[in-house]
């Protein structure tokens, strides 16, 4: 089994972060460079994706003079996480600087030495909540002001009564009484004007608030007030103010909102709704609207409920986005099940293993069982464990990925099956790369099909070798006879036949070698020999058989290697043959060798049609051929380079290609020098 967890690609990580409801960004260096920001964070700043890679102070200049840049620098310097709630910030919204409120966290991400190297910034816009709270506070202030006005009026009435008694008792002069009344009237008018202005300011603020706000009065729930946002949500105009809620928005009569309002009015307890769905009639169509809201009872000075305030934050887009993600996850799970693909992940620190039910089925494990790491490891057949272990450790150590095909013994019936496991290192919920995650595919049928195909190819190749050998012998006899009889035409024709026979023989041997490679029956007969002499022999043979090409090779100093001479010669011949096949007659083919460190480095360069970049990493795959208008007339089965790569790798060397379409190709391989 592959103990690795496939790591998500950068595109996939970005996609996941882009779908987060929380705004997220990543900064690096003391200049607070924006390494990544999802759409929610960019929307907060009022920018576009061109700011990625810029310092935050340059990308969002309106933050200058605000504390955030210094706060971030402090986090990257000290490594101490900074967080807060409802912090005001001036941001650019629709081209205007506006004050909004945010809950935030600046979390330092540290390397293995504990040194911070970047900051993960998450934020949530709580402006609507803060404004809602302030709206409630203003409403309470207004209520208190009205109560104070009532008390003041009562005090004034008592003062007037006392003044009248005092006038009667003391017989004060009319002029003094008039003056006192004038002063009192002035105070009342001033106080009344202040209250009127205060109420006007509150109503104006609530009317333009981004939060949907309405007030329902009395048990019949008359709409006392409704701001622009709530009218927009309901699809109504201010003509509904003064009407009963069920008359103004009749679709609510069949939903739970009126019942809940009645319960709030009766109990005096606030009611909170989270992502609650409402069906709203707009332009003759029913729309689904989701909101987070509160029904807050409002009381008079005697504690009696007089009205209920609704404050709602519309979250339809967020809910729809989350549902879209959930549907995508469901489709992914369906695709995995349809493809009989199991998933797994392993914590590389604790060795905790998590297997999907489908993977348990592939491994022959009861779905209710949760085997540990050692139990899974014991299912891998002994002959494959070292290879599997090495690839898993390489993926963990390099924080990369792995692709392993190996045999496994099913837990329930002991059947040996072939599986292919893809894994990748990914981050956990804390952003730490400590999880190997991936998928497993049962490739038993594919392996059996390949074996049957290899057996067939091996059988056919063996059967063809005898007639091909006989044809070659008869051809050689006819060649000798034609030369004795000075029959130039027959000699030339037989030379061409002999060349084609050699091609067929090479092809048959290649098929046999593929079969031997995959069955583990190919053996290397190593000896010390001069690679330079082998190169000269192969080049001389190519010059003789393909004289229309200019083959350049300057023999250098001896390069002694310990290898299988015949198989290394087959590698060189294959590279030379490809250079000739894919070049026009008369073109130059350069062969050279050099010593690099403790390696012999051979290069075969041509001036042929070249190879497009997307094909370079697949050239050495079995049966891989490039199909285009220029190659469709060139013979081949895509096994020459595959065999060459396997031979070089079994000699602990490397093979690779460099090319550009239309600019020729360079094929390289290295072999260790003899000790």
UniProtKB/TrEMBL annotation:
Residues 142-183 form a coiled coil. Residues 459-675 form the Histidine kinase domain. The keyword Transferase applies. GO terms for biological process: cellular response to phosphate starvation. SMART domains: HATPase_c, HisKA, PAS. Residues 402-455 form the PAC domain. It comes from Pedobacter yonginense. InterPro entries: BphY/WalK/GraS-like (IPR050351), HATPase_C_sf (IPR036890), HATPase_dom (IPR003594), His_kinase_dom (IPR005467), HisK_dim/P_dom (IPR003661), HisK_dim/P_sf (IPR036097), PAS (IPR000014), PAS-assoc_C (IPR000700). It is an enzyme of class 2 (transferase). This is histidine kinase. PROSITE patterns: HIS_KIN, PAC.
């Amino acid at each position: 089994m592959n103990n690795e967890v496939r790591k998500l690609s950068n595109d996939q990580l970005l996609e996941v972060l882009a779908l987060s409801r929380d705004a997220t960004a990543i900064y690096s260096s003391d200049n607070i460079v924006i390494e990544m920001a999802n759409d929610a964070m960019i929307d907060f700043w009022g920018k576009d994706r061109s700011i990625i890679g810029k310092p935050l102070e340059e990308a969002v200049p309106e933050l200058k003079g605000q504390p955030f840049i210094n706060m971030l620098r402090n986090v990257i310097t000290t490594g101490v996480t900074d967080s807060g709630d409802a912090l005001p910030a001036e941001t650019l919204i629709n081209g205007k600087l506006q004050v909004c409120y945010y809950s935030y966290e600046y979390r330092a991400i540290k390397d293995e030495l504990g040194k911070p190297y970047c900051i993960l910034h998450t934020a949530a816009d709580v402006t609507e909540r803060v404004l809602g709270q302030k709206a409630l506070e203003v409403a309470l202030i207004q209520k208190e002001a009205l109560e104070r006005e009532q008390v003041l009026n009562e005090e004034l009435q008592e003062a007037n009564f006392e003044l009248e008694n005092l006038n009667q008792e003391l017989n004060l002069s009319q002029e003094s009484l008039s003056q006192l009344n004038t002063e009192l009237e002035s105070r009342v008018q001033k106080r009344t004007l202040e209250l009127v202005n205060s109420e006007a300011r509150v109503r104006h603020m609530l009317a333009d608030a981004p939060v949907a706000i309405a007030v329902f009065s009395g048990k019949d729930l008359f709409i006392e007030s409704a701001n622009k946002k709530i009218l927009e949500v309901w699809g109504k105009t201010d003509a509904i103010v003064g009407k009963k809620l069920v008359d103004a928005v009749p679709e609510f009569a069949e939903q739970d909102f009126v019942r809940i309002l009645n319960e709030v009015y009766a109990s005096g307890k606030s009611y909170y709704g989270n992502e609650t769905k409402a069906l709203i009639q707009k332009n003759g169509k029913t729309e689904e609207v989701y909101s987070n809201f509160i029904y807050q009872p409002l009381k008079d000075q005697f504690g009696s409920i007089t009205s209920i305030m609704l404050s709602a934050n519309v979250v339809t887009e967020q809910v729809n986005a989350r549902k879209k993600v959930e549907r995508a996850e469901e489709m992914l799970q369906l695709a995995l099940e349809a493809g009989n693909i199991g998933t797994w992940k392993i914590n590389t620190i604790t060795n905790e293993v998590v297997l999907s039910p489908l993977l348990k089925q592939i491994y022959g494990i009861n779905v209710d069982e949760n085997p540990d790491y050692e139990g899974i490891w014991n299912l891998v057949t002994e002959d494959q464990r070292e290879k599997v272990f090495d690839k898993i450790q390489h993926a963990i150590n390099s924080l990369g990925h792995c692709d392993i095909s190996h045999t496994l013994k099913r837990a329930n019936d002991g059947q040996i099956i072939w599986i292919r496991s893809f894994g990748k290192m990914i981050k956990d919920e804390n952003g730490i790369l400590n999880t190997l995650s991936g998928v497993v595919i049962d490739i038993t049928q594919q392996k059996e099909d390949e074996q049957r195909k290899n057996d067939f190819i091996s059988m056919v190749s063996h059967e063809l070798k005898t007639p091909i050998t006989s044809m070659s012998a008869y051809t050689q006899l006819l060649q000798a006879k034609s030369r004795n009889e000075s029959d130039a035409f027959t000699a030339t024709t037989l030379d061409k036949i002999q060349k084609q026979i050699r091609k067929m023989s090479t092809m048959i041997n290649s098929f046999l070698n593929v079969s031997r490679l995959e069955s583990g029956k190919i053996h290397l007969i190593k000896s010390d020999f001069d690679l330079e002499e082998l190169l000269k022999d192969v080049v001389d043979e190519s010059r003789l058989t393909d004289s229309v090409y200019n083959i350049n090779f300057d023999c250098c100093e001896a390069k002694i290697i310990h290898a299988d001479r015949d198989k290394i010669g087959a590698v060189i011949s294959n590279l030379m043959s490809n250079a000739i096949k894919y070049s026009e007659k008369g073109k130059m083919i350069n062969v050279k060798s050099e010593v690099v460190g403790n390696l012999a480095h051979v290069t075969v360069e041509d001036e042929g049609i070249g190879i497009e970049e997307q094909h370079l990493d697949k050239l050495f795959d079995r049966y891989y051929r490039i199909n285009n208008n220029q190659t469709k007339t060139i013979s081949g089965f895509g096994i020459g380079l595959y065999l060459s790569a396997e031979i070089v790798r079994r000699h602990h060397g490397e093979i690779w290609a460099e090319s550009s379409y239309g600019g020729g190709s360079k094929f390289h391989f290295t072999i260790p020098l003899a000790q």
